[in-house]
Amino acid sequence: MKHQVLRGFTGAAALVALVALMELAPVAQAPVAQPPSPAPQPAPAPGRQGGAPPVGAAGRGGGAARSGANGIEMVPGRGPAGPGYTEPLGKKHVLVLGGPAGFYHMSTPKAMGTVFELGEQSNLYEADIRTDFSWVTKGQAPHNLDYYDAIVAVNITGNWPLNDQQKKDFLAFIHDDGKGFVGIHGSLDANHGTAWPEYVDMIGGEFLFHPWWVSDAPIIVEDPSFPAVRHFPKTFTLTDEMYEPRMETFSRDKVNVLLRMDDTKLDYEGRMNVRPDHDFPLAWSKMYGKGRVFYSTIGHVAENFDNPDVRTMYLEAIKWVLRRTDGSTTPHPKVN
Ligand SMILES: [Zn+2]
Question: Which terminus of the chain has a lower count of CB atoms within 10 Å, N or C?
């Protein structure tokens, strides 16, 4: 059953990607889309219908299948499975969340479809795409948080529609269980002020403004050893809408800044809400309790999800929060 559901998601991902491509670019200066990198050929998956020994399931808390109320075979703690189901060796589960309560970004379907594709192409994880939040729970759900290894939050602006218990479950998923979190662009413009300060603490800050709107941003790589950014040149430009985080809730003392804008190359004439310290971090890594957190503001522009370097950044970020690679979360001063 699970595979039928996933095939459905494949179709949905293709559809949302198509819809995104049909939308007009948000600005005339949208970057020339670079051809997507050749899709790496995934290694053949270990037998998924009983062909290979159930190595993965044995180490993942799997057990004897039982029949759920709806007749779907369930593996305790791991969700639906068919008879003889063998979990792919080491394959992770990622919940891709969209569904903004605030500003809607037209790049959202493209971004969510991209995260799904990256999982398939890398053979690293299976992704579920959701635009409601009912699976953000440790209680009853077709797949609850115990099933997942990481959450990727795509442009979820505004106050997330979670009740108090869901908020606790979400934070515990990262902080206590050591699962991963990747925030994309608009997910920094969320849960402001007193709405959910623990979320702001988890992700590492909150949106202040984007003084340069969508423009060619001059970027400096601050931590070239980090897996999600080491493929970038030391300096480069990218057309996107770069957020700056609020001074009050973002601190370099709490995160490892990976990318920032080169403040010496920016035009400040007539720009509103510019941080007085001219520190404009664009991506960072951090810990939240036992869990790994990655955030980047890149992703307002849908075409950037066709950019091989941006795709690599998010794939490597997901790999990192899934603990498949190592990278620093140690804070450091602004690097020139
Ligand atoms: Zn935006």
Answer: C
